Amino acid sequence: MKDRTTPTPVQEAYARDGVVLLQNVLTPDWLEKLRAAVDEEIKRGERYFAYKNMRERPGTFQDYCLTSDIGARVAEVAGSPWTSLIYDQLFVKEPDTKTQTGWHTDQPYWPVAGPIMTMWIALDEVDPDNGALEFVRGSHAWGAKYRPFKTDQAGAFTHYQETDNPDYIDMPDFEADRDRYDMLHFAHMNPGDALAFDGMTVHSAMGNRTTTRRRRGYAIRFAVEGASYEPRDSVTEWLHDDSLAPGAPFRGGRFPVIHGA
Predict the structure, then answer these.
(1) Where are the alpha helices (H) located in the chain, listed in sequence order?
(2) Is residue 99 a contact partner of residue 156, using CB atoms and an 8 Å limit?
(3) Are 15 and 117 in contact (CB under 8 A)?
(4) Mean pLDDT on 16-24
(5) Which helix (H) or strand (E) holds 229?
(6) Which SS3 state, helix, strand or coil, does residue 186 take?
(7) pLDDT tens figures, 98-137
(8) Distance between CA atoms of 53 and 49, rounded to whole angstroms?
């Protein structure tokens, strides 16, 4: 019998690179339901980053987050005995949306300290032509805390937040200095595949240079063992939960444990 303390190849890749590709995370039924739910949601006509926290409303997104095996998949990758749900978000790049999403890390935008994971699920075929995600391999292990920033409608940088917080530094210009870094992207994702990546992994998303192919991505954010609640009013007030004390394990209240105990 395999020793449970021995990392799996997926766990080793995630720990080394800060991102790993998982195939066939969605069943065909969930893929069809989530595609329909995304198309209905974006009829609201909001700005690119505004489609978030759908899981707090009854419907397909909530059902998927709470009743599918996604929490177990996260726990498997992270090697965690439990998984709690932070929030979900849509990233839909329609054809001819050429703007590159700026290089960033996720964790500074959320009231969490410690290990967290995004599960970014492809609802269409994804490749560099229509908006593949790109990562700086191993950047989650640098110990750098990059300052959060605001973007325009298309996802391009406008200005930094928390400029007076000494815990954070400005994001280097990774795009202008690409040769210095180990850039990683996956040449092709099938609908239903997912990217699991650490909240401190530097990443971006290419523009959609096609004229006919959509790129619908459904991202769900999770906390795992070792994560704690760390509210910061200037950035994360929309995710605050007064039932959790600062420093408490990031689970319970608005953030239900969906796998483990």
Answers:
(1) 9-17, 28-41, 60-67, 70-78, 233-236
(2) yes
(3) no
(4) 98
(5) strand 228-229
(6) coil
(7) 888 889 999 999 999 999 999 999 999 999 999 999 999 9
(8) 11
**14: Cα separation from own chain's centroid:** 14
Q: Write out pLDDT tens, residues 213-234.
A: 999 999 999 999 999 999 987 7
Q: Count CB atoms within 10 A of the CB of residue 164.
A: 6
**Rounded distance between C-alpha atoms, residue 222 and residue 250, angstroms:** 10
Sequence-distant (6+) residues with CB within 8 A of 221 are 85, 86, 87, 88, 89, 106, 110, 116, 117, 118, 199
Give the per-residue SS3 of 145-185: CECCEEECCCCCEEEECCCCCCCCECCCCCCCCHHHCCEEE
Q: Which residue has the higher pLDDT, 246 or 148?
A: 246
Q: How far apart are CA 22 and CA 12, in angstroms?
A: 13
